[in-house]
Amino acid sequence: MKCTKCGEDIKAGNLYCSKCGAEVQIVSAYNVMEEEFFLDIQNQEMGSRSKRSMADTVTVPMKKNFYISILIAIVGFFVLLVSAFLVRIHLRSMQPDVPQEHYTQLIQALSESDEDMAKTYLDLGISEQPEELSGQFWAAWLYGRQGNREKQIETLQHILTIDDENVYACRQLIRVYVEADDFEGLYEFYNACAGSKLAALFEDYLVESPVIGMSSEPAHAGDELTITAADGLNVYYTMDGSSPVTNGTLYYAPIRLESGNYTVRAAACNEEGYYSEIVSRELTVEKQYQLGMPQVTPHSGEYPTPQTIYVNVPEGCSAYYTWNGSNPTTASRKYNGGISMPEGNNVLSVILVDEYGNVSSVQRVNYIYMPQ
Q: Using one digit for the tens of pLDDT, what is the confidence trace for 249-266?
């Protein structure tokens, strides 16, 4: 049987042309073999009749015919010997080995819509020649027909372990991933094929990935998340680590963030519905207070009697203070409640620090306390 695309001989039971990768229509291999066999026999018979016809019309003198007859007999003997040898080889080549016979029976069963019997012949063929690609391809085809995508992928991957540059297996595996919208599996497969001649088969399915960006670093509540992609591509994203292909929200404007932890995942999609490789980013968005100067009571002034000083500390913040006029830090004394006003002329310096390390401006209060 020959490939209709490139003319290459195709082995009985094969699903594809080993030269150009073209698919073979599911027909009875037995009928094809039978047809080729009888055409060959017919050609041989016509050749024999032609020779006999020519011999009948030749007349030569008897004396010369004696020597010519001897020569013809010798040549004829060798011709018959060689012909018999060639015919034997041809007939032997026309008979499939036992596994190929199973695949021929498999095709016949499929043509009769008997998938159970087809599976029986397939199992027999694979058990006798587990590395025979014909059986593996038929197994992948049957798994696909039955909707067993996991086994179909597993079988096609097994074929590529036997022949790591099998174009047909690669094309079929790409098709399985794309039809199932499993673009994560597709790009994992593509990365495994990078650097081989099979990588070129992915060109029609690859989409440029988007870029996740932040308006500032580190991220604080109120900051915006941006996702950019090439012109003509839509972007889908999730913030909880789930797949943007199946659960994504269409991105159309910068995303204003609230405090919390996020796993951002995004993918670009072209007009054909093919998705890019998924990109992801872990984000911790901190709370951000607009920390004003600490509120301290009482206010600056002269006090004839002892006073207790209080600092208004917002939730999530701590206060630190000094009495020597220096700027307080987190290493300074921490405010834990009312502060007794010391005697004399003193300056209290106070700062607020939130849980994310944001620091307020310094509040300075001058107290003059002179006991009577």
A: 999 999 998 888 999 999
